[in-house]
Amino acid sequence: MLRRVAPILLTLLVVVLGVTALAARPYAPSPRPSADFVVLVGVAGLRWDDVDPQRTPTLWRMAQEGSIGSLSVRSVHRPTCPLDGWLTLGAGSFAAWTGSRPDGLCPADEVTVERPDGIGAYLPEQDSVVLHNQDRLPWGTVPGALSESVRCSVAVGPGAAVAAARPFGRVDRYAPTLPEDPTELLGSCVLSIVDLGTVAGTDPAARAAAAREADTQLARVLAGRPPHSLVIVAGVADTERPSRLHVAIADGPGWENGWLTSPSTARQGYLQLVDLAPTALAALGRPMPDRAFLGRPAESVGGRPADLPAAIAEPADADREAAAQQEVAGGFFTVLAAVQVALAVAVLPLLRRARRHAGPHGPKPVSPRLVAIVEVLLVAAALAMPAALLAEAAPWWRYAHPAVSFAGLTGVLLAAATLLVRLVPGYRSTLGPLGAVAGLTTLAIGLDVITGARLQLNGVVGYSALEGGRYAGLGTVGLGVFVAAALLTAGWLAQRVPRGWRPVVMVAMGGIAVVVVGSPYLGADSIGAIALTAGVSVAAAISAGGWLTLTRLAWAAMAGLAVTVGFAVVDMGRLPAERGSLGRFLAALGDGTGGLTVQRSSTSNFETLVNSPLTVLALAGALLVWFALLRPWGGLMRLFGIYPAIRAAMAGTGVAVVIGGVLGGAALDVAGAAAALVVPMAALSALRVLDHAADRTRPAGDRPGDAGWPDGPVARHDGDGGPGAAGAAVDAGAAPAQGGPEAGAGHGRTVRSSAEVATG
Prior knowledge:
Layout: H1 2-23, E1 37-44, H2 57-65, E2 67-72, H3 82-91, E3 121-122, H4 126-136, H5 145-148, E4 153-156, H6 158-164, E5 170-171, E6 173-175, H7 183-186, E7 191-198, H8 204-223, E8 229-234, E9 246-251, E10 259-261, E11 270-272, H9 276-284, E12 299-301, H10 308-353, H11 368-382, H12 384-390, H13 402-423, H14 432-450, H15 476-494, H16 502-518, H17 526-542, H18 550-572, H19 581-591, H20 594-611, H21 613-629, H22 636-642, H23 644-663, H24 669-691, H25 725-728, H26 741-746, H27 754-758
Parallel strand pairs: 1-7, 1-8, 2-11, 4-6, 4-7
Antiparallel strand pairs: 2-9, 3-5, 8-9, 10-12
Helix pairs in contact: 1-16, 1-17, 1-18, 3-6, 10-11, 10-13, 10-21, 10-24, 11-24, 12-13, 14-15, 14-24, 15-16, 15-17, 15-23, 15-24, 16-17, 17-18, 17-23, 18-19, 21-24, 22-23, 23-24
């Protein structure tokens, strides 16, 4: 009876853990009106290294008194050109101006602004821009949504006209340049948008001159600002490749001496360009538009250093790190994929010759030294991503050659981690390297996530603030590696306990991993938590033995579906601005715009599948497993027969990473990251099992303490308690059990090889 209800109870436990992890959310107070007027000042291309107390004293003083942050200007295209940035600012969602962008370069900032009455203005291109964004782009953006949410708005300069134009092209009040005394103009409407030009190029003198000119005009804006007003200065766009992080400063009542942040980033000191429109409306106390913004209202939080140079140094350093990450990440994953493919090819002949024959004749065995070298290389390959993550603890991006600095630091950490695994007491056992690598990886990523995921942000194996997909929690690569490491650790632990307790160990360890991945306080990845729930259910179902049957797969599917439904119910009960991705998607299905979300996800999956080096890792790993490791000579089936908990962990990993990648719009990236850890460990473990396939072992009736049972780590009971279990658990580093048929006859039984035990 207990064995029948155990899968139900364990599934319910996983579901409860998953829903609990996803349902809890940090308290976020609703933004309150803080200003009677809002002035949005844009300077395309303005970065924190352009801000200086001598060149830009107004910006410096404003940063001293107000709140500062790093602004990600991600929009439709890369880079976000000035017209795209201004349009995104006024739309509160990803938007793009019409026209081509040859070779990713920004076109000339030419926009036609007509002034039929001398008060306002009209943009004749607005109709085509609106159609382009609503019909051809997948976000359903409404250009001019910000100006439509207020009764009256002011625009100064052509870029500001693009942001302030209503969907039909009308700009309420317009001035082509900033007046000497803008007091009357800025006080005529509750919302003013001001274009102070562009800071572009790589020439320091030219950038300094442009920043100085913008600073001079900003001084006039601050002198003429209306009373009780909020002024926001933002570097609203890139001007060239590569993309960069830009300046964001807010100065007004309630915005003093803090860091700018937003619920859309959940990261102190970071906000997005799409956050500026909802921030303006929230400050004015105006309702949000019917078509919800992608951004969320920003706020000021404490914790900023009292010393302004030290405070400004942080976002400036973050910009340098993000830029260096873009340069290094592609090369790192390309090299890693090439190395892992080369190792896969090198392992094939070793697998064919790894099995030692019991008789006097057979192929010459591979040199033990060569096998030991390959094993160390496999350990190093599996530890490459954790080592790259730990490298983010040192500021490698500050050196003249960031790629060389990162490679050197990662190499040192990789060598140290590999040596540590090599020196662990159980390294010579079959599962020793697997358990050590999985445990170290789980510990490294888990501790980083628990302490704020500082190594993930702008990390080579993390995520970039320039991409704008994620700013906090666990990234795509981190998810794949952590899921694989956590489940392999659970499998290694489960294999060391009696058979009946293995599902409990899998659920306990897997449940903790679900909480780490899904909690908004930690990993903040609801899709990843749902996928991991299904993976844990699969692993728990087959950890005690047996294969992945349709019934067990159905239990896993039910667990994932139950978590999804439970979280959806909780998420839909929240206010629209507080919902997660699942709640927003369900709301979009309700109002008929869910197709846009599906289209965005499909496009993201396809682009990632085609362009990511992790796709190569996933496919190469799958090919090695299917055409080599799972063959009769490959050793993986033998490993699975001897260690069912490891088989369960790997099966659960496969289910989790495929679901997480597809639903998260990451295609095979999650699977590729997991394969970088799982496949080398599977190959190493298979080599060791094959090396001892012909070892003679004591029959199952022998137990520690019986006469003739070898002392030490020669033979180990794996906890199954069934016939042949002791013989199936010979460790790879152990000598074969003494005695042959004669010894077996002394027990009145026939001695069986581990190969016979594994195959039944």
